[in-house]
Amino acid sequence: MADPLLAVDNLRTWFYTDAGIARAVDGVSFALAAGETVGLVGESGCGKSVTALSLMRLVRQPGRIEPGSHVTFEGRELIGLDDEEMRKLRGNRIAMIFQEPMTALNPVFTIGDQVAEVARIHQGSSRKEAWDRAVEMLELVGIPAAAERAHEFPHQLSGGMRQRVVIAMALMMNPALVIADEPTTALDVTIQAQILELLRGLQQKFGTSILMITHDLGVVAETCSRVIVMYGGEIVEETDVRTIFRAAHHPYTEGLLGAMPRVGEKRERLTTIPGTVPPPTAWPTGCRFRDRCPYAWERCEREHPPLYQVGENHVSRCHLAEEPERRVPHAPAVEAVA
Amino acid sequence: MTTPLLSVRDLSKDFVRGGGFLGRAKSAVRAVNCVSFDVFAGETLGLVGESGCGKTTTGRAVLRLIEPTGGQVLFDGQDVLALSARDLRRLRRQMQIVFQDPFSSLNPRMTVGQIVREGLTIHRLAEGAAADTRVMQLLDEVGLRAEYAGRYPHEFSGGQRQRIGIARALAVEPKFLVCDEPVSALDVSVQAQVVNLLQDLQRDRGLAYLFIAHDLSVVEHIAHRVAVMYLGRIVEMAKAEDLYREPLMPYTQALLSAVPVPNPDAQRQRIVLTGDVPSPANPPSGCVFHPRCHHPQKDEACARIVPPLEEKAPGHVVACIKQLPTTVTWEAQQAVGGTKQPSRYLPVIPMRG
After folding, report:
1. What residues are paired with B179 via a beta bridge?
2. Per-residue pLDDT tens digits for A227-267
3. Can you tell me the distance from the alpha carbon of B93 to that of B176, in angstroms, rounded to the nearest whole number?
4. Most exposed residue of A54, B28, B84, B87, measured as fewest CB within 10 angstroms of its CB?
């Protein structure tokens, strides 16, 4: 990637809690090119949402982005940028779509006001200009009778319509990067299909980059060109979307794919990943997945695996890269204690 | 054919709103509208549909956790809706429920052991050391360590809490479990553990499940038969493999085609439904799905005739007057303004690329 839109280098976001230091994001590095859609995948507690909040500099106390973390966006370092500059960037060059559209909208303002506000803040548009632009945007995201609906309040809209409003707000300033954190998880499947279709269409039209944060590999397959899999606050695998589904390398990715029931592919039994994700205050030594891994051997406890190059544009944080003959399943160590 | 363990006929539930102190006009929302189905011993019936379709209300009305407005529920030959409170409590030993939210469905002040043991005490199934032993057995059966009995729910992850909820339900040795979205709050890897556990328990104990979920892939995996609900009605019901291979109700076709496929090379035709689900307070006339329907033969008759749930293929019932065969004759459809003859409409929905 010659000059990526976004470059994240050794991002570490730690939370200083009573239970100890939670290393929620612990040395994450990746890059995103202009116009690209990349999926950031993992289960609860893997650090994907904290990664997103860190990029937006929205991490709150007791969380802290550690020294040595770098986020470069359009050639500028965001870590250390003052709050005023950061505010100018947010909602303007970088926008975010949240999972729950009801909480992302203000219940006491009309949706038209809320979308228009973006243009008033970032462009200094007049009330009238901003409103007209908001109605245009609401039309674009498929709100029927947008001119009238703009006068409605969030509670008057369905979940799918609210998510369209949130998308309209995000795209108002034609941002270079949209961070979408589980944008369809709260929606029904037929509405999800509508929203994904909408995002795809808008991306083609505006050439926006999307960082799609999701736990749903189906959503990844349908929207992303590249996938980053996170586990235990780290990236464990990264490659293009075809390779992840055909030739996943990391045992965790393999486990995720096996655990997922798929329509039209009935199996007798789902493969499972035993145990649960360890707490971020106590990641295991060595490989953080080893307690749950069917292939783990003594090296995995001793040595923290680096991201190995396992193919063209394909990296995996697993010692199997050097000792592939060990890919022979046996029962994993112990079930993680509650 | 054997008699079903659970037989539900024309079950309805109205929620009345308004009519309070400030005197807003009373109106009834029919959340469940004349729903009928059977569940056989050892079988899983999947009940799927989107938010607000009435699937959760159906599950609770069957157990009388909410009182149905009308209909009949026969469980093992007993008329559930006619039972006195006392007899109902006795019957609840046979019918249990596993809730969706593993965080709110366990009492935070009780230990895991007390939670699992409560049913044993209430139904006088075991006391003292015998009850302790039984609790240990149950925890073991759902894959939890016996020493967890002394801990409190907050010490457990979502998946483990769901196991506790299952152990509690199993304590009274029921024959039938309503599983209301039991895995939808769980991560994929943990979800698979719980799905496998439910399947193992069914195999070992011959349990019957009413498995309520919005996730079509999980339901295909676990259910023997599947019923699809839309706006309070069952609109299609068939053996799982038939329903997923050849969905006949246009709504089911759209629903299945909307599921994201975890295969970037999948070739498929997606039917994107326009608009939202209408409000159950004001459902469309005739076929409740007609305003969003994509059946090419849709016409005025669909807005006028309530489609009967009728057999279109062996064991495969569908509510659609435009999908052949139908008992609603072409003449009857024309009489109410129908202009397009019924056909057999099967949009290609390849699940795999």
Report:
1. B98, B211
2. 999 999 999 999 999 999 999 999 999 999 988 888 777 77
3. 9
4. B84
Residue A67 CB partners (closer than 8 Å, separation 6+): none
φ/ψ of residue A214, rounded to 5: -155, 160
Nearest Cβ partner of B221 from A241, A256, A266? A266
Domain coordinates of chain B in residue numbers? Answer: 6-18+29-229, 247-340
| Mean pLDDT of the residues in chain B | 90
Chain B residues with CB under 8 Å of A215 CB are 187-188
β A209-214/A20-32 pair status:
unpaired
* Percentage of chain B lying above the pLDDT 90 cut: 69
State which amino acid sits at residue A125.
Answer: S
Task: Please calculate the CA angle A203-A207-A213 and round it to the nearest 5 degrees.
Answer: 50
Structure-block tokens of residue B22: 């400030």
| The predicted structure's pLDDT at residue B353 | 35
User: Among residues A94, A35, A31, A34, which one has the least CA distance to residue A238?
Assistant: A31
Chain B: closest CA distance from residue A123 (Å): 33
* Contacting residues for B84 by C-beta, under 8 A, at least 6 apart: none
Q: Are strands A226-231 and A234-240 parallel, antiparallel or unpaired?
A: antiparallel
pLDDT in tens, B217-273: 999 999 999 999 999 999 999 999 999 999 999 999 999 988 888 888 876 678 888
Q: Which CATH superfamily is domain B6-18+29-229 in?
A: P-loop containing nucleotide triphosphate hydrolases (3.40.50.300)
**Contact (Cβ atoms closer than 8 angstroms) between residue A203 and residue A37:** yes
Q: Which of B158, B191, B216 sits opposite A263 (nearest CB)?
A: B216
Q: What residues contact A82, with CB distance under 8 A and at least 6 apart?
A: none
**What's at B292, amino acid-wise?**
R
pTM for the full predicted model: 0.87
| CB of A165 less than 8 A from some CB of B | no
